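Good morning,

Attaching, inline, the backbone tokens for the sequence recovery test we're adding to the shared suite. The designed sequence is right after.
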């Protein structure tokens, strides 16, 4: 079996609407390394798009899932409940950065988490409007696409988006958008498009993921909280990509000294298994009548077992500290690369913990870099509204040796890209 053979089969069997960033097919993986079906080794700086904070096939994840499989694999929580779901909810409620009692419900995907957070907010406030931000990404289902602040490729071809969603500019100093300008635009929305008393929620990624790892300023998020309090609007933190130790906190919103009302979580919570959820203030979470929330596979026993193991690994291996250490190492390396004259211009180096990014001149350069890195055995991924950002989401369990090797390959690939 070869990558080329599988690529032909993929093209014949799978629609082109689901894109794949690399032309390789996985054979096996462990921690921060992956081998394709031809046996070639790669260092993984993508982590399944922020899903593998604890690495590929962490032994504790594998053992927890195997133990759960020996008991039962599925009952549907709405039919026959099970302890792993309840216990994981209890653990997340205790970790939630919000005062007072919290409750958690589980789903399977990030889009389910963001959509259900909005459903809960609408039920709790009896309002329908939602404000999101340009450049934000909240999923690919129809309503999640409406929340997403980027047209191509997430909205094009799919017609008119569901109503009731409005977008404000996300503060970005490099793009010349200050916190004050974003807040003024929010005031304009309230004046021209939707009254604040009709807004159920404002949803924000503390660090925009697909939007280019743009970090929300502390003052902006705090003022957003004040606006929500003033108008009875719920604040939803989309922690799908930022959660579970990636930013050197369990949740990125903890960097801001701000309490959200609801949080959408997913990705690394399941350690590679489909698991998402909404964590929120208990009174808000209980606003939905029985039967209004759920899903056949939502909170799968297998995924919940993996979720418990993820929390154990984060604590036992001190991954909050490790995230900061990885980020500092990568930042120093990128700053050294930016000072060289044999690579494309590197600008905008930024990070929160181990959520790391930098910008290149254009999308063509990022594409060339990803290709050059892959040919040397490093998996990279771009992002950003203009497609000119390279993001690094290496597993937090990566060894220093593999991290250094990957960063060295990055430097070689950049030099090749310069030509």
């Amino acid at each position: 079996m070869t990558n080329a053979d599988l690529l032909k089969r993929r093209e014949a069997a799978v629609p082109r609407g689901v894109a794949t960033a690399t032309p390789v097919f996985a054979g096996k993986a462990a921690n921060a390394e992956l081998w394709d079906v031809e046996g070639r080794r790669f260092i993984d700086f993508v982590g399944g798009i922020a899903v593998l904070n604890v690495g590929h096939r962490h032994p504790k994840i594998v053992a927890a899932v195997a133990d759960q499989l020996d008991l039962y694999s599925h009952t549907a929580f709405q039919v026959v409940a099970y302890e792993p779901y309840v216990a994981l909810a209890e653990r997340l409620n205790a970790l939630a950065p919000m005062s007072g009692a919290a409750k958690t419900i589980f789903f399977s995907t990030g889009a389910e988490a963001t959509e259900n957070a909005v459903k809960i907010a609408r039920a709790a406030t009896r309002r329908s409007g939602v404000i999101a931000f340009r450049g934000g990404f909240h999923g690919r289902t129809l309503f999640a696409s409406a929340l997403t602040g980027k047209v191509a490729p997430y909205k094009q071809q799919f017609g008119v988006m569901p109503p009731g969603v409005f977008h404000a500019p996300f503060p970005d100093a490099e793009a010349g958008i200050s916190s004050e300008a974003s807040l003024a635009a929010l005031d304009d929305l309230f004046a021209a498009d939707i009254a604040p008393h009709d807004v159920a929620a404002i949803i924000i990624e503390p660090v925009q993921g697909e939007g280019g790892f743009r970090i929300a300023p502390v003052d902006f998020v705090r003022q957003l909280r004040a606006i929500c309090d003033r108008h009875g609007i719920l604040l939803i933190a989309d922690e799908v990509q930022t959660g579970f130790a990636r930013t050197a906190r369990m949740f990125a919103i903890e960097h801001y000294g701000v309490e959200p009302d609801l949080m959408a979580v997913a990705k690394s919570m399941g350690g590679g298994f489909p698991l998402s959820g909404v964590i929120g203030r208990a009174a808000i979470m209980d606003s939905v009548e029985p039967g209004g929330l759920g899903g056949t596979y939502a909170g799968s026993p297998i995924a919940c077992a993996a979720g418990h193991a993820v929390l154990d690994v984060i604590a036992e291996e001190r991954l909050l500290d490790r995230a900061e250490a990885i980020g500092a190492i990568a930042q120093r390396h990128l700053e050294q690369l930016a000072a060289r004259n044999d690579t494309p211009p590197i600008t905008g180096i930024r990070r929160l913990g181990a959520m790391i990014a930098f910008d290149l001149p254009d999308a063509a350069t990022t594409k060339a870099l990803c290709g050059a890195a892959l040919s040397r055995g490093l998996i990279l991924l771009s992002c950003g509204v203009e497609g000119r950002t390279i993001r690094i989401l290496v597993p937090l369990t990566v060894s220093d040796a593999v991290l250094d090797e990957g960063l060295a390959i990055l430097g070689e690939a950049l030099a090749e890209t310069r030509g």
